[in-house]
């Protein structure tokens, strides 16, 4: 039987030097009360210190919530994360060598919990080959003080594989909706199901403790057996949270639509404004045919869902997000991971099993840098750690990959009007450079495995060939030399069939 305690009492259980894992996905599912209590204890007592922190998907609001609660000198000894962008303070500390830091593929991390739960020697996969997590490159290490290898290159039946090694867990901090007297946990009001069970079992298999923040306590029998996400045999402590520390997402206190309790008329979703983000989303959407199963990344790719809804094709394709949503229209911003009118909500680990197994037809993902060979960087650039998230899993295991993003970065003024593009002031930062700072997507691996790869921007569309990037389309209203070639760090191949991007992309 799990013991009911306060958040402060839960924080007091965590000892110096422990290895802990924290659940959540972007702005959803993070045990905010537990993280806040740990931070408060550390700031008042200087303990717990020297923690090793593990999280598959970076959780936070980009300012103070989520994983940002751990961003204090001395509190952490090591961080293993799939995504870092929503906890910028942690990224800054990693760059400054204040703790050991790793960035590993999100999907592989969620699968690693399952392997650890049953005592397996880690996860063996091809995911990560040729990227910065390959031990022949950085092995996922993010700074100079990080020296231990967590990823190993192995050979099986004459083929290269990567082994992601298991890690010790002394405690996991999770979040659910309800807990009964036996410690059974439900997630019926959560936006995402995540990998709660795998995390709990991973900790318990190693003698660690499981602490779960919940919204409410219910009596015996208050949770139907088939609605139990984590059984009480895998839970040690339950912490009832205050409502303000248990928002469904960092944007929504509670939406019954995100919980799957109600449906939202999709015609009530606001249309996207006609700007470069919409142009990019429209062009990417042209690559998606009926009945395709599609993954959308955060940022500009989110707009593909809006475009699909605007043209009445949201039900014609199956949109998915890595947190587990299938069908419907994915939400954006700090509610990314939640879905309007999902037809199913999978566990996080099972969604990546589907992705890694080739279940996707198309993926639309953002990019920070691309180089002459076609390599893409999303994980570390311009002195900032963003993290790869599910990017490596998805791009390496999907046959058609569409990178979506602005042609340049930085402050700009680019107008879309009268069926053309008008660049008043361009971004100062080149995104197409001679060599990316870090390889998050290996063009060589993609070519060897026969993938169809496009790079879609507001002013140009490129394809990937064995020789590198090929310019295929340019936007109406732009000058090839001035606005494209002159704003790149290399000269791409130019298709003999170079054509204009469809003008309808630039019209209301």
Report on this structure.
With 508 residues, the chain is an alpha/beta fold. It has two domains: 3-245, Glutaconate Coenzyme A-transferase; 273-313 and 360-506, Glutaconate Coenzyme A-transferase (3-Layer(aba) Sandwich). The chain is built from eleven helices and 36 strands. Strands 1-15-12-9-2-3-4-5 form an eight-stranded parallel beta sheet, sandwiched between helices. Helix 1 packs across helix 2 (32-45), helix 4 (106-117) packs across helix 8 and helix 6 (276-285) packs across helix 7 (302-310). The termini are far apart.
Which features does this protein show?
Glutaconate Coenzyme A-transferase, 508 residues, globular, eight-stranded parallel sheet, 2 domains, alpha/beta, 36 strands
What are the SSEs and their pairings?
Elements: E1 3-4, H1 7-13, E2 19-22, H2 32-45, E3 51-55, E4 76-81, H3 88-95, E5 100-103, H4 106-117, E6 123-125, E7 151-156, E8 159-164, E9 171-175, E10 178-179, E11 185-186, H5 196-205, E12 209-214, E13 216-217, E14 228-230, E15 237-240, H6 276-285, E16 293-296, H7 302-310, E17 318-320, E18 325-326, E19 329-330, E20 339-340, E21 344-345, H8 348-356, E22 362-366, E23 369-371, E24 376-377, E25 380-381, E26 384-385, H9 391-396, E27 400-404, E28 408-409, E29 413-417, E30 420-425, E31 429-430, E32 432-433, H10 443-448, E33 452-456, E34 460-465, E35 468-474, H11 480-484, E36 493-500
Parallel strand pairs: 1-15, 2-3, 2-9, 3-4, 4-5, 9-12, 10-13, 12-15, 16-17, 16-22, 22-27, 23-32, 27-33, 35-36
Antiparallel strand pairs: 6-8, 7-8, 10-11, 11-14, 18-21, 19-20, 23-24, 25-26, 28-31, 29-30, 33-34, 34-35
Helix pairs in contact: 1-2, 4-5, 4-8, 6-7
């Amino acid at each position: 039987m799990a013991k009911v305690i306060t958040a402060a009492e839960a924080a007091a259980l965590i000892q110096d030097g422990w290895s802990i894992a924290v659940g959540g996905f972007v702005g959803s599912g993070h045990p905010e009360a537990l993280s806040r209590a740990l931070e408060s204890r550390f700031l008042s007592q200087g303990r717990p210190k020297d923690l090793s922190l593990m999280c598959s998907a970076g959780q936070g609001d980009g300012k103070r919530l989520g994983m940002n609660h751990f961003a204090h000198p001395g509190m952490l000894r090591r961080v293993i994360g799939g995504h870092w962008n929503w906890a910028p303070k942690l990224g800054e500390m990693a760059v400054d060598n204040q703790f050991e830091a790793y960035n590993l593929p999100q999907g592989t991390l969620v699968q690693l919990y399952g392997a650890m739960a049953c005592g397996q020697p880690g996860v063996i996969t091809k995911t990560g080959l040729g990227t910065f997590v390959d031990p022949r490159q950085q092995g996922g290490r993010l700074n100079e003080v990080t020296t231990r290898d967590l990823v190993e290159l192995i050979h099986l039946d004459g083929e290269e594989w990567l082994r992601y090694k298991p890690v010790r867990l002394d405690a996991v901090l999770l979040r659910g909706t309800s807990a009964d007297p036996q410690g059974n946990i439900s997630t019926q009001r959560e936006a995402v199901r995540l990998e709660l069970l795998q995390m709990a079992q991973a900790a318990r298999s190693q003698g660690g403790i499981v602490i779960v923040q919940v919204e409410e306590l219910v009596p015996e029998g208050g949770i139907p057996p088939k609605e139990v996400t984590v059984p009480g045999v895998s839970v040690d402590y339950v912490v009832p949270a205050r409502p303000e520390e248990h928002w469904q997402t960092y944007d929504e206190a509670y939406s019954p639509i995100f919980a799957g309790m109600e449906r939202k008329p999709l015609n009530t979703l606001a249309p996207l404004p006609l700007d470069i983000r919409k142009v990019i989303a429209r062009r990417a959407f042209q690559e998606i045919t009926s009945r395709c199963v599609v993954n959308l990344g955060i940022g500009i790719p989110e707009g593909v869902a809006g475009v699909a809804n605007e043209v009445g094709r949201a039900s014609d394709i199956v949109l998915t997000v890595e947190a587990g949503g299938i069908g419907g229209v994915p939400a954006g911003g700090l509610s990314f991971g939640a879905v309007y009118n999902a037809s199913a909500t999978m566990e996080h680990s099972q969604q990546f099993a589907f992705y890694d197994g080739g279940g996707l037809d198309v993926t639309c993902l953002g990019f920070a840098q691309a180089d002459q060979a076609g390599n893409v960087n999303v994980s570390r650039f311009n002195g900032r750690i963003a993290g790869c998230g599910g990017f490596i899993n998805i791009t390496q295991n999907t046959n058609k990959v569409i990178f979506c993003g602005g042609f340049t970065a930085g402050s700009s003024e680019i107008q879309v009007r009268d069926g053309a593009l008008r660049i008043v002031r361009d971004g100062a930062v080149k995104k197409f450079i001679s060599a990316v700072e870090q390889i998050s997507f290996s063009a060589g691996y993609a070519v060897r495995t026969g993938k169809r790869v496009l790079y879609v921007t507001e002013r140009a569309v490129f394809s990937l060939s064995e020789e590198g990037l090929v310019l295929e389309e340019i936007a109406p209203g732009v000058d090839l030399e001035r606005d494209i070639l002159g704003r790149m760090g290399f000269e791409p191949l130019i298709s003999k069939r170079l054509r204009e991007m469809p003008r309808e992309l630039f019209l209301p």
